[in-house]
Amino acid sequence: IGELPLDGGQSASDLGVLLETMGVPDPYLVVGHSFGADVARLFVAAHGEATGGLILVEGQHEDILDEQRKLLEGEDLEQLEQMVVRMSEMADPRSELAYRSSTTEQLRSSGPLPEIPFVVITAADRSGALPPMFSEEAQTRLADLGVKLQERLAGLIPGGEHLLLEGVGHNVHIDRPEALLTPLIHMIDVIERADE
Questions:
Q1: Phi and psi at residue 10, to the nearest 5°
Q2: Per residue in 137-188, pLDDT tens?
Q3: Which of 7, 112, 176, 184 could form a disulfide with 99 if both were Cys (CB 3.0 to 4.6 A apart)?
């Protein structure tokens, strides 16, 4: 990558170049975890005609920060704002956190996703992903908001499915690999049947 930015748009572009260079035939079944979910969405928005399915695992909706600001107040809101400032003041921005705001804007302007098989996989207990700086009440409210935004993600494509999983953390693919493999294998079957 060299000196190119590490935002979601650049990463999606890099994925396109990689697939083309390697001669990988479409349709693609695109799977993205965490920040990779943003990359996956941006790739699919740009290459919808070559995409057969999309699975997002523990990603974030682009409205999360705005919705968190509406939800929080007092010290909890101050903590959130301080966290945002720390992320934006990184001296050597070479991480996904440093490019969160540009990736968010890219998602907002990327246009609609194609009508393809679509699954969003979410850990039911999202409170473990929250920094301990927030009050207990705020953590509960933020966890509930996180699930609602995951449902909103699933609604980006008509017929999108939201799988809310108990007993897993952010790394669903490690905690319970079959929770990812089952919809993945099903989607491969759907794509293969559609190709016949």
A1: -65, -40
A2: 998 899 899 999 999 999 999 999 999 999 998 899 999 999 999 999 999 9
A3: 7
